[in-house]
């Protein structure tokens, strides 16, 4: 992957990414590796092949750590393993998510808990795990993945959109709480990014055309389109930006 920009402060940085085995997460792993960062990524899917492939292309091979992030103890243990390998985590990217489609009447308490565990709870406890070292260092960056789906008021996955809205609220609160220690917390809200999962499960010609008509930039988003914005928010180039939610969607939603 050729990055459109270099962020020298990310070279050697200890980066931890959740859901890094495929889709946007895999693009992020390569994006940070290409910057010279020391990257560890967690995924529930076997992803050693990705780490091996990137290790063949870059001198700083990423570290794959098998982890179910809905198991809080396992998640925090995995973050500790990443810190042991690369030094205290200075950049956390909470990327893992499950946008499973569902309807109001089908949601059970168990389904609610399972969806919140991956889409919100894991974000909070990953931040909790990395915060002490960031505070001690007087710097650090946390980037949380939300979605424009809740801003659009989309139907078809109300538990998922509830989690997305909560992520932006949590981002703002953590930015306020950690800001005095020099730690920045921001969110990224992607539009419809055409990962292999999206194309296989939910992308139809009619749906894609309808969504594209709502964009200002009439080109579908790819996972690589999220790399630059996340690198920017993770780097000192955005040193005075915190508590924000950046929509990366081709111009569907606006803020301000």
UniProtKB/TrEMBL annotation:
Residues 13-192 form the Ketoreductase domain. GO terms for molecular function: oxidoreductase activity. PANTHER family: OXIDOREDUCTASE, SHORT-CHAIN DEHYDROGENASE/REDUCTASE FAMILY (AFU_ORTHOLOGUE AFUA_5G02870), SHORT-CHAIN DEHYDROGENASE_REDUCTASE FAMILY PROTEIN. Signal peptide: none annotated. This is 3-oxoacyl-ACP reductase. Belongs to the short-chain dehydrogenases/reductases (SDR) family. SUPFAM superfamilies: NAD(P)-binding Rossmann-fold domains. Keywords: Oxidoreductase. InterPro entries: KR_dom, NAD(P)-bd_dom_sf, SDR_fam. It comes from Seohaeicola zhoushanensis.
